[in-house]
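discrete fold record:
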Amino acid sequence: MKLKNPSIATEASRLLQEIENEVNLAGIQHTAQEAIEPKVRFPRGYIREAGCFRQKYPCHKRPIANNVAYTLQFHDVLRWLLNRTDIDLTARQMVIKYGIVSIYSVIEAIVWTKLSQTRNMPGKKFEKNVGKMQSSGFIDQGLAKRLIDVHKKRGKIHLELYALKGEEKYDHQDWNNAVEALEDLRKAVAGD
């Protein structure tokens, strides 16, 4: 979307940089004392309320429903950062990576919740749980494959495994694929 008045983004960027320059001149960098007062106000209206997520992604156990909602609020923060700023370099990939991780966590919770409501009690292995979802008729083979693909992307978060598996690249499409898989899982479980 193109802003009607692009100069407001330019001005906001200039002011944020001015704040950072002032902090740097004070000699405070990357420490606990780095917090500023007053803080920049995060834009209201972008992070959806937890109740919205509890309704959209119902879970029969309240603690899981809460954690799903809070994880999706964190996901909103990451999406804002990716979509509203020009963050680049490895930091951009890390934002995408943890966007995928948050979506995967919700997928995992929904799979676990659905299976725990049946006689197919979930196990510790995600792939086996997805297999149970498919054999129970909750999801089709295509969705099962996409969920496993998200799981594989998420599996690359273990830093100590980079030496064994190699570095993983993350892009915006990987994140979108994870979000689409979550939405299709939600629809399948809800019977939409």
